[in-house]
Predict the 3D structure of the following.
Amino acid sequence: MCPRNSLAALPWFHEALPRLDSPPTTAYPRPIMYKHRVIDEPGRRLLRMTVNDSAIEIAVRPHKTLLEVLREDLFLTGTKHGCELGECGTCAILVDGEPVLSCLVLAIACEGKEIRTIEGMADGPELHPLQTTFADLGAAQCGYCTPGFLLTAQALLDENPDPTRQEIKNALAGNLCRCTGYLKIYEAVELAAKRMRNGSDSEAKR
Amino acid sequence: MSRRNFHVVGKDVRKVDGRELVTGAPAFADDFPQPNMLYGKILGSPHPHARIRSIDTSGAEALEGVHSVLTYENVPRARGPVGRRADLFNRVPYTRAGQDYPEPSPWDFFLLDNKMRFVGDRVAAVAAETVEIAKKACALIEVDYEILTPVLSPEDAFAEGAPIVHDEPDVQKAEDPKRNLCASVDVYLRDVEAGFREADTVVEGSYSVPRQQHAQMELHIAISYFDEDDRLTVICATQVPFHVRRQLSQSLGLPVSRIRVIKPRVGGGFGGKQEMVIEDICAALTVATHRPVRLELDRYEDLTAARCRHPMKLTCKTGVKKDGSLTAIEMIALVDAGAYGSHSPTVPTNTGNKNLPRYRCRNMHYRFDAAYTNLTVSGAMRGYGTPQGSFALECHMDETAEAIGMDPVDFRLSCTVVEGDTDELSPYIYEVKSEAPGDETKPEDVAWPITSCGLHDCIQKGAEEIDWARKRKEFDKYNVSNPVVRKGIGMCCLSQGSGVAGIDTANATVRLNEDGSAILFIGAADIGTGGDTVIGQMVAETLGITLDEVTVYSSDTDVVPFDSGAYASSTTYVSGNAALKAAIEVRDDLLTIAAGLMGEEAGNLRLEDRQIISSRSSKKIPLRDAAMHSIYKNKDQIEHTASHVSPVSPPPFAAQYAEIEVDTETGEVRVVEFVTAVDAGTIINPQLARGQVDGAVSMGLGYALTEELMHDENGVPMNRGLVDYKIFKAVGMPKMKTIFVETYEATGPFGVKAIAEIPTNGAPPAIGNALKHALGVRMRDLPFTPERVLRAIGKMK
């Protein structure tokens, strides 16, 4: 090892730290203004829909997107958002079984529809096979795009239980992921598809 | 410690946060809205360079539902114009770069200022009952701007009589703001001119790299509130919770003891969140209103007004002998720091010192000059300056190989470092930076030995995997007939670092429960990388338990011990070492208790599979018994905290190979196959490590082919969102293969080195070199868009 290879040899080690300019005080500045909360929200409309198998009745402001109503009014924060412009696929959910970008849909347009979000994907404590493979194979890295990918993949597998790699790529083309390079996501979808096929085979045999 | 059979380390185990992420459980900052929460919005400057003459906020303030409008008048200069309103904050210069104190980055930012330095710079901040009201209020703020001439390139910035970006008198630590010089380094190892004279051939080339943006899926988000004890709490998507706490204290004038920063799960950071982009202004709105405030950037703001990778223009010059040995290398970089100096002294330093040392060469010269401009602020981004240098140097090395008629692979094998060589440049740059007058430190005095290096294995295994020798010849033949779609294959080799030597500090606490399970408290910030999992694996391995039995807490400044944060690929190497030290102390305590219970000597005992086993008598007791004994008999819970800082930053090494097809009619480049062979020491969790490589490669592919944040001739950003800032989608991805060339780095926990950044660096040069192979033309500017390809082959003007 090099003789100077220690922290004490590094030039900045013995330097004194500069002092911060303004020593902080414990007193907070007085807040500058208060206004009454806006409680008057005219024009709310009653909306009925089914969310994760529960019938919901809620008064929503008509300009709110389904994403906003799910997250802010129903506190279903599992649905994420990455652009609110329909570019990233992060907010994908299922409306009547079809993947839909919830940031582009007005909530009131979903009257009578059946909505499925990530919170409704597992069967109680039992994860959906896609959820299991995404967790096990590292397909959820930061996990932010994961709910959108899971629901889009579920819609694919519901329609096509044995998709090819290219079909998976095409189905997931509208979802962006910055962490995984997509490889682990394909692998997780393929493994889940295989497990679901085998599962239904064995049920059929019984 | 040496290699042995591990039980948890080296295994694919599910991430500790795997379940919460796939079930949509509340995990990210935005999933924790607070009661009575207000919504914040920043009014961004429409001009790249302007001074606010006056600002009228009365319209905004009159709007129902608006609670606070903050402008520079709330942050007055000591002897400046007197604000109309209560002076809420003191004008204090600070940096938002998340670095250890004292930050090397200049203190050139103010909470709010009357000078606008780029499009999107903070004019005002509003807190209102709803997002819609906040946006409306922003539109009602009337600002009278004195428009100044913008500085739109480093060349303009250094020109005689250029407008000064930072003309305020209170800027600190910038190198020479009056010349728009943010930072610079000029360092020589011995004598490059003599080296060039000694050479058989001297090769020169110039290259340029664009602004790349992190485009992490989760936008910058912060939720701040006063808790029940009136302490300021900030839940935010950050890589550096402890630096955010300290910088909040500095910028808002609150003591550290009154601030708590919570980092929940983070939806990708990539360096963009190694920066206090919005936490300060969000917290300021909470201080102003005494209400919880949520502030989130929208995608346009996140792309253009957060941070980006430093754009650079680089020139390389190399002296080479006919046998492939190098006599001198010179690299000179002109760097666009953007409007503020975040990370600008350090990022371009890495451009040289994380690239040049992988070549064996006695004479080196590295210089950079980073200029302030009125463009999007450059900052930290995965690779931290290294990808820029890797593109230039690896394209340049291919040109050098060609100049002496050598195969690129053989050439790399002839002139890159092996175990036992030294890295003289990295430590020497720091020496030169802080050199005292009369100090004549020689590079060899401070050199770091390269203690583990699998670079040659990486080069060879990668070449085998992609079938280099055969394809290189076959494509040559194929391209002779001048087909529309040409084929090419290219490679490059890479190096990086493992944490910042002597700076990155980590602490970890391991607490043992009565059933033998453990709780691990780490300051390290897992931002999706799997850091919590990997460090948890190290603790589990040491205590002979499973990962399920380790609960990992990261990162809450009230709960966990200090850590510099998640950057510089430091989590596994630096923070892992702290956790390992703490776990070893816990293990030793356990064995001492067990020795008493078993009537054995502690030295003969080991922990394995929840058992404490004697290697002498093969007696064993459950781990639980000793843990129970500690709490209920000794009345002393076993808990240890350990600290770690590394005096060295051992480089991981890699070689990357790209096979491409390029359409000479459309100019489109398609990557067919991409191979990464990487030496990151021991791999703790192969699955997560592979995930790091795959993701880094896709980011590198974007840098090579599609991603460029552009500004028009007025300095206004042109990309509006992810539709015109193109990151790779599922359909465009090539076939990818990762090979781990495991070495054992003695200074790393279980022999690890870093992995997260290095695979980002290679796609641009590997593809650039493959394009040269396919087209016979050297392309020097990233990204290789169809337009640039057509220009390069003369089919477009």
Remarks:
- The longest helix of chain B spans residues 571-598.
- The longest strand of chain B covers residues 326-338.
- Residues 32-148+215-304 of chain B form a domain with the Aldehyde Oxidoreductase; domain 3 fold (CATH 3.90.1170.50).
